[in-house]
Predict the 3D structure of the following.
Amino acid sequence: MPCFNNAATVECALASLRCQTFPIDEFFVLDDCSTDGGADLLDAAGFRCLRQQSNKGRGATRNRAMVEANAELVVSCDATNRLPHDFIENLLPWFDDPRVAAVYGWIQDPHPKGASGRWRARHLFKAGHPMGIRHNSPLITYGTIIRRSAALEVGNFNTALRHTEDAELGERLLAAGFDIIFDPRVPVFCNVHNTMEEALNRYWRWYAGVGEPTSWYGYMKDIVYSAKGMAVYDISQKDLPAALISLLCAHYKFWKSTFNR
């Protein structure tokens, strides 16, 4: 479990792992130099917490997790999420196929709060959209089981990446002939609420891509999609505040990537 300033939710996330119907051999948290006391809280609760001496980002944190783990199958759960008690039991049969490198569930927020929560559920978590099982899917690690040997075979997570580290590893796994499965029948519950800025930043992090490429053409395409696709859908749901967030997201993504460079 990667953790960075998640003191408010990390214990709930760990409790959801401890309650699994399929036993887990070891639990550990990789704390990426948190400043909110979360690592101390975990130490006091008796959890194994590996502390990084400086903030290294998601790629380096997940890379170290694969190195530190002793088991062949590694359950990854973000510190802001919680897993249903039968998460492992329901996903484990997929690994009877040795080509399967990872399987993940469908992130959900059953009780979204405010416009940003409704927007996040609708456009990031895809609530209300019909979902089927997908093979050769992009890798997402918010609630996932990963075959450790497969990840190490293709070079592990890229330590230089602060976001998109899962998608980038997924591309290498697929190129090597492995399969990645999205199974929407198994939920992953988001356990944190986002402000509008946090929701927009999550949108940027999910879609900025490796290297955060920008172009005026791409910017225009994002504007058209956010207006004709996302905002129109919000309006159809009679949700004007969420529609305003949709209209902002293309601009936020473009300018954040531009200023980062």
User: Anything to note?
Assistant: The chain has ten helices and eight strands. The longest helix spans residues 216-236.
